[in-house]
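Retro notes
What went well: the complex prediction finally ran end to end.
Inputs used:
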Amino acid sequence: MKAFWALFDKLLNMMAALAGIILVFIVAAVCYTIGMRYFFRQTTIWIIQTTEYALLWIVFLATTWLLREGGHITTDIIYSHLSNKARDYLDAIMFIIGGLACLVMLYFGITYTYECITSNVTDVRAVTIPKSAVFIIIPIGSFLLTIQFFRMAWQRLVSARKGG
Amino acid sequence: MEWYSIMSLLFGGMVLLLLTGIPIAFAFLIVNMVAAYFFLGGVPGLIGVVTGVFTSITTFTLLPVPFFILMGELIFHSGLGLDAVNVLDKWLGKLRGRLSILAIIMGVIIGALSGSTIATCALLGTILLPDMLKRGYSKHMSLGPLMGVGTVDALIPPNALTVVLASLAMIDVGQLLIAGILPGIIMSGLYLIYVVAWAHIRPHEAPIYDVPHVPVKEKVMATVQYLLPLGFIIFMVIGLIFLGVATPTEAAATGTLGSFILALLYGRLNWDALKKSVVGTIKVTTMIFMIIIVSNTYGEILAFTGAASGMTSYITSLPIPPIAIVIGMLIVVLILGAFMETVAIMMITIPIYMAVVNAFGLNPIWFGVLMLIALETGLITPPFGVTLFVMKGVAPPDVTMADIWRAIIPYVIIDILCIFIVLMMPSIATVVPNLMGMK
Amino acid sequence: QALAAEVVTLKAVTAWPKTSSENKAFFIFTELVEQMVAKKYPGELKINYIGGPEAVKNTDQAQAAQRGMVDMVFTTNAYYLSVLPEVDAYKLSDFTPAEERTKGAYKYMNELHEKKGLYLLGRLGLSEKFYLYLKKPIQSADLKGLNVRVSPMYLQIIKGLGGNPVVIPPTEVYVALERNVVDGFCWPAVGIRDWGWHKQVKYIVEPGFYQVPNPLIMSLNTWKKLPKKLQDLLTEAASEAEKKAVAYFDQLAKDERPILIKEGLQVINLPAAEQQKFLKVGSEEGWKDIIQKNPQTGPELKKLLTKGS
Ligand code: NA
Ligand code: NA
């Protein structure tokens, strides 16, 4: 089990790193397209579209990693007044609900991707591409989010039992 | 179901979940799923929630957000930001609250001219906040101006929001863009007055730290070395827009390139600084975009169920005098601003509002300016508001949500004061376009 | 007194915000429906207009109809090409919607819709054309060296005429024109004043090209569940609305031109040969694109929608 989680964590890190590479790439790509247009009167129409897709990929590549790192912001008004044990239980419950919401997103993400593939749904911008090629990152990200939520819920339950 | 029942269910559910301490993005996600199932027709509604993720985020207009954050991170991690602040210290050694003043001036220049409130807040927060806290500025004096100044941006052209508003309301774009300038200047002036006054009333919140006496020659040298180069970055954003090289959205990328080049030239761009900047950007961007995705759906549910337009029609049909109706309409915008995206708010309210404005024979430019201020104020009104979340994302961990709420209140009040000023003196909105011979 | 029949309520969304001029065609339709229902089957059918893109994003609306989240969608072809790429062919049609009905183009297009779980009620298409608006004058059908803001709709013609297509959102077109990032853009005959762009361009290029299709579609499931008499009523209202919409927007386009000229725009009437070249390139590039994307159905669409040579 330990080996699995080590591998899982490594995967999350690698995905976040990929998000970083994509980020640097799109900065370069937009500068390139501006330069080409201004100096050479040449336009590359696929670049803007690519950067738009990149925004989605960055989010879903990095979101699970960010969840693990505690980087998604929370409000802590009542929460900070609870005892450790109560906090653990509350967290566990909320993480399970969060995991379930991500599970729903995973389920419909998969069915929609499948629909995109079987009925040739495309995304039509300057260039037409199969929508599934970009959309696929949503079920992938949701899958990892689901696992991470349940993992965190389990950790809280263990901690609550130890604490009590 | 009546609009107020839906409104209170959606709002109540949201508040309840937020109290449990689950990340805001996922609290929204859960509410969206439940609401989509019940209000958007079951499974098709749920599919819509998932497919909407794709549509809401793959849009060019969001591009400045990661770019500006990366720009800020590069300036900060390369130490260029700190150097620039040090130079200002040498010049303005004794001026109380100078970093807050600096924040407002920078915010007006960069934010106003490039036009993304969220991105401006993220940029200023990354560059200036760490220094401000390090120099003993209180959270009130540091967080507040950094967030507040972003709302000036819709009033000073160019701004995409203004263009959308004008086209929806069928009023003259050029006039509305110009009309915002004077109120924008008044607003930033009030921010400055507030900051200076507060720094004098509570000096410990913006401490004057010891700056050793520096000869003028050294000051000039330091300015040339560390302050002028930052001008290069500003040029890479604003200059390129004015020269017609890049659109306002694209200019965020050239600005990032500018900070990269500068860090490289100063020999400050080691692997560590680059890595920290990119990682920091990914963190904040992902957090913000998750919130944008889910709040987008939340807003759509409000629109689809008719809750938002129900509230809007209710207010506009109240049997009260025109000026009270106008105030009511602006209050609706402030309320919707708490949990809906700005353009969506306009699409819902403008058709109803403009009918009222035209029926009463009110000046549409004047009303447009009022709307712009109210829409921007919505972005910073607690408890929800994207700008507040962005600040939480870029701030150090010991800054709580409550700190942010407390810090923003004066700026919300100033914004509302501005609304009243324009409300009472319509000429503030119309004098500049009239002087320029428009109409 | 007959038993009160069940009330059918159809949830409708449009691709544009409520007050936009495009929606006028849809409201022509709903008014007709209202009148006909009141006359023939009082209280039996109601169209509940939910809103525009603030309720369902415009590129997701056709899919929402496929799944039955909404029953009726008034949109433009560009917003559901992802589901039904063939619908793009409408922009190249040589006919009015009414002519398309008699020539079988409507029937064929509807069959394609039905395969995707949609029902094509009609095409409230403005017989309005697209125009090229420019800051600099041109003498021929050659756009070499010009940066032109495009949408996928007319990307091919601009490329075919040698221009540089530039992709920027409508919200930034104003600033992009003002600061010379682009030298012009394409847009229908009506609507550029909504965005204030008439202040930033000097020329309108004749000929106008293509046309604005704007289909009115329904969820196929909903359609099938409707009683025959209501189906007939909707069809009648749609074909009536098609004619009225064409006339309405025709007039609108005619009224618009003098206003634009008064605002200082000049019309560039390209020489006849250049006009022909302009349109020929537009049609050829357009059909090339359609047939390449729809190798099976494309040629048939071309046959049904063009006057032929
Ligand atoms: Na601005
Ligand atoms: Na708010």
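What we learned: The interface with chain A takes residues 78, 81-83, 85, 116, 145, 147, 150, 152, 155, 164-168, 181, 293 of chain C (CB under 8 Å).
What to try next: split runs per interface for comparison.
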